[in-house]
Amino acid sequence: MLTTAARAGFWGFFAGAALLLGAAVAYFVQVRVRIIAAIMAFGSGVLISALAFDLMEEAYRRGGLDSTGAGFVAGAAIYTAANICLAKKGAKHRKRSGDQQPSEEEQDGSGMAIAIGALLDGIPESIVIGLSLLHGGAVSTVAIIAIFLSNIPEGLSSAAGMKRAGRSAFYIFGVWAVIAILSGIASFCGYAIFGRFSNDVVAATTATAAGAILAMLSDTMIPEAFAEAHSFAGLITVLGFLVAFILTKLEER
């Protein structure tokens, strides 16, 4: 039990650390905004595929349509409500790589709101990693790859925007380091806590996380990708989807 739970925590931290990697690239390397947007589009496609063929399928297999459907809608509703509240505090453009993010001088408290918003975006993904170990004690390779690949552009874009808004290096790397650690804890809890519940509860929780992730993609990553990559955003998203789909089928063999 403890060994598997610790493994869940490790993989959650590993996937969350991709945010820190993306932030480091954005802070030390001058990456063109359109390249960041293209990576955002690819990461979005990867996550959408993982949601459709890994998370939702597993939730349906465990709990059927009722638990899966209720959890999926609830996850999106909870995320949307929290996102609206954070947007009013200055976190609306936390995924934007340009100069859209407000500085602390422009909106007091926006730094904390952006940090909480980033945490809101990452926790559902981490819980999914822990839940994936409940099925046979093996982590879902597709889920890990999908979350890791999507976290790099998230960190890239957000950190670039933070830097342009005048945030300090201590703030930028502190935010992502804390989120990486909390991602590991969330993944640990996803396995250790929900392993004691029924299949219906696990299915609803998995679907809730999936709904929150899809809402996050629609509200933050996809708009940023389209705003900068324009007509190519759709094609790049499809390529990301295809890569994750292939990985899913390879894992099933």
Task: List the main descriptive attributes of the protein structure presented here.
single chain, mainly alpha
What is this structure, in a nutshell?
The protein is mostly helical and 253 residues long.
Notes on the protein architecture:
- The mean pLDDT is 83.
- 82% of the residues lie in helices and 0% in strands.
- It has 253 residues and is mainly alpha-helical.
- Helix 2 (33-91) crosses helix 3.
- The longest helix is centred in the first third of the chain and has 59 residues, at 33-91.
- It has seven helices and no strands.
The secondary-structure element order is HHHHHHH
> What is the structural class?
mainly alpha
Distance between the termini: 27 Å
Give a quick account of the main beta sheet: strands, pairing sense, barrel closure: none
Q: What would you report as the Rg, rounded to the nearest angstrom?
A: 17 Å
Strand content: under 5%
Using the alpha-carbon principal axes, give the shape: globular
